[in-house]
Design goal:
Elements (H helix, E strand, L loop, with lengths): L16 E14 L4 E2 L3 E2 L3 E19 L4 E6 L2 E2 L1 H13 L10 E9 L9 H21 L4 H15 L11 E4 L13 E3 L12 E6 L10 H7 L6 H21 L2 H20 L10 H17 L4 E4 L5 E6 L4 H12 L8 E5 L3
Parallel strand pairs: 5-7
Antiparallel strand pairs: 1-4, 2-3, 4-7, 4-8, 5-6, 8-9, 10-12, 10-13, 11-12
Bound molecules: ligand DP6.
């Protein structure tokens, strides 16, 4: 697989346009943590795309003005983000040769709280890549729905790795693995629907906001720490190996094994950070209390409530819609919500 198919069409006619797109966030089950040059992941990952947690973006392109980028987040000027996008646009010029030939005014809004730690870079870069592909089609006159989505995923990856998975619904894989046909390090692919047991198609993700505020390690720094982590190679290998049972589990519908694998992945991500130099402990007291309560609850009731974590303290509570969800929701409200900072919870479902 090469980047050749994504090289941009040199024949284009630009004009001033405003386009709007929205893109959801996603939550990884097998985690991406560690990367090489040009946003190539050190291991394959698989995620669920969320439904309500989205970024809505409008992009105004003013043709023939000197290249510049202005960004607004929820109506407020964001200089740092604009600088990041400027750098990003310069970086992807070979794929969109018209991209530096105008001025941009980008307005974005997230449907979830900024402090929630829900990956706004995934939905944010996903939405920007979609806007760029709409402009590209207008300027080059080339349309191919499948090709355009794939290129949007390719471009989103160059903004933020996990963003490339947000372009598709359902379960989505990024990173080459023998277990998933057509998988690639360059873009994400939807996990084949007929390989997914119905039990995994209607799922909840409630995010407990244990700690709101700035993360103590950015993902850029976090990925970088894997370069010197003595356990990194073993971790990358394990993530690759985990695709074998994951594939079987998704097909058979074995919930117990699914839970075990997903929680193991989350804890491994945090273990990697604890073993980095410098070390980071991103869990808070509330994170540990919630995890222990989930384990006790599962032991007592046998119900399928489990967790995953991102690179932060907040806990993603995962549970299927299989008739037991009301009991689980009551438990969350009565027992787990008290461990959040301000009774904060974002209630989402997987988007299929
Ligand atoms: C822990 O995609 O945010 O959420 O490529 O540097 O932008 P960059 O990193 P990013 O890393 C996400 C890491 C993760 C796991 C995952 O989503 O797979």
């Amino acid at each position: 697989m090469t980047t050749q198919e994504f090289i941009g069409n040199p024949n284009f006619t630009i004009q001033s346009q405003t386009v709007s797109e929205s893109c959801p966030s996603n939550i990884a089950l097998i985690k991406y943590w560690g990367k090489y040059e040009n946003q190539i992941p050190a291991n394959p990952s698989i995620s669920y795309t969320l439904n309500h947690c989205k970024t809505n973006t409008s992009m105004e392109f003013v043709a023939a003005e000197p290249f510049s980028v202005q960004t607004f987040l929820a109506g407020n000027v964001e200089v740092k983000f604009a600088e990041k996008i400027e750098k990003y646009f310069k970086n992807i010029e070979q794929y969109l040769p018209w991209i530096l030939k105008g001025k941009y005014i980008i307005r974005t809004e997230n449907t979830f709280p900024h402090s929630s730690g829900i990956a706004s870079s995934a939905s944010g870069f996903g939405a920007i890549a979609k806007c760029l592909m709409v402009l590209d089609e207008m300027f080059t006159g080339k349309t191919s729905e499948e090709g355009s989505l794939r290129k949007a995923s390719f471009l989103a990856r160059l903004g933020s790795g996990s963003a490339c998975r947000s372009l598709y619904n359902g379960l989505v894989v990024w990173g080459e693995t023998d277990e998933v046909e057509n998988s690639s390090d360059l873009f994400a692919v939807p996990y084949p629907d007929h390989e997914i047991h119905d039990t995994f198609k209607s799922f909840n993700d409630w995010v407990l906001l244990i700690h709101e505020g700035q993360k103590s390690v950015s993902s850029t720094v976090g990925h970088g720490l894997m370069k010197t982590n003595p356990y990194a190679e073993r971790r990358f290998q394990e993530a690759r190996e985990n695709f074998v049972p994951m594939k079987e589990i998704l097909k058979s519908g074995n919930m117990d094994q699914f839970i075990k694998l997903v929680e193991h992945e989350a804890l491994t991500l945090h273990a990697m950070m604890m073993m980095s130099d410098p070390a980071f402990i991103l869990m808070r007291t509330g994170t540990l209390e919630v995890i222990n309560k989930i384990w006790d609850f599962r032991k007592e009731t046998g119900l399928s409530l489990f967790f995953t974590l991102d690179a932060g303290a907040n806990v993603h509570l995962l549970f299927p819609n299989n008739g037991t969800e009301d009991k689980i929701k009551t438990f969350i409200e009565e027992e787990l919500l008290q461990h959040t900072q301000k009774n904060g919870v974002v209630k989402d479902v997987m988007r299929f």
